Amino acid sequence: MLKQLELTLINKAKQGNKAAFDMLMVSYQQQIARIVRRYLQDPDEVADLVQEIFIKVYQSLMSFRAESTFYTWLYRIAINTAKNYLTRVKRMPAFEAEAIDLLPELDSLTDKDNPELLLISEEVAKGIVAALKELPVELQTALILREINGCNYAEIAAEMHCPIGTVRSRIARARETIITKLKQQ
Predict the structure, then answer these.
(1) How much is the pTM?
(2) SS3 25
(3) Of 136, 118, 149, which is closest to residue 38 (Cα–Cα)?
(4) Per-residue pLDDT reduced to its tens digit, 127-175
(5) Angle between the 153-160 and 164-184 helix axes, to the nearest 10 degrees?
(6) Which of 20, 116, 128, 179 could join 12 via S-S bond, C-beta 3.0 to 4.6 A?
(7) CB-count exposure of residue 176 (10 Å: 0-12, 13-18, 19+)
(8) DSSP assigned state of 3
């Protein structure tokens, strides 16, 4: 179920209210930029692609039927747009930009004044990214949706077109695989 304010903004935006659409996009701008940074490293390219995504959202807003959360719908547009962009420019995604987001608590464990601890945390982040890249796509997608994008299990299940139990097992397998690979380093 959509949040009432969000639903109101969506309905007003569908009726052509530009201010409502702007408010809706501002509330998701950082999340969409974070998604795009997983695929691109250049800040100018990220900004351009975020704008392209918002244009696509505006153009297809009438097709949003609230069968999933607005964020899930927006996320899918963002991912597809980023992948299509990479196909156009023939590049591979740069997951490194989001490595630190996999472990939000990593920041609290690092002492910015202690170079040794900072180096260790950077190495852990690189290990996580390397292990994440080696995961099968379905495990990688489930883990990214949960840990980076903060989606709940129901949203992930809807996005991946599978039961919640499958989502839970994919996330658990992904975490176990990453932990095993980190222990081997």
Answers:
(1) 0.52
(2) helix
(3) 149
(4) 777 888 888 888 888 888 887 777 788 888 888 889 999 999 998 898 8
(5) 100
(6) 20
(7) exposed
(8) -
Model pLDDT for residues 53-78, shown as the tens digit of each residue: 999 999 998 988 877 788 888 888 99
Only one residue has tokens 């080696």, namely 134
C-alpha span between 137 and 160 (Å, rounded)? 11
C-alpha distances (whole Å) from 164 to each of 67, 142, 154, 158 are: 16, 11, 6, 9
- 3-class secondary structure for 34-69? HHHHCCCCCHHHHHHHHHHHHHHHHHHHHHCCCCCC
Domain ranges for the chain, please list them: 1-93, 99-185
Residue written as token pair 């409502």: 20
Contact 21, 11 (CB under 8 A): no
| Residue 132 φ/ψ region, left for φ over 0, alpha for ψ in the -120 to 50 degree band, beta for the rest | alpha
At the second CATH level, the architecture of 1-93 is: Orthogonal Bundle (1.10)
* CB-based contacts of 165, cutoff 8 Å, min separation 6: none
Domain 99-185 of CATH type 1.10.10.10: yes
What's the pLDDT at 53?
Answer: 93
Structure tokens that stand for 17 in this block: 């209210």
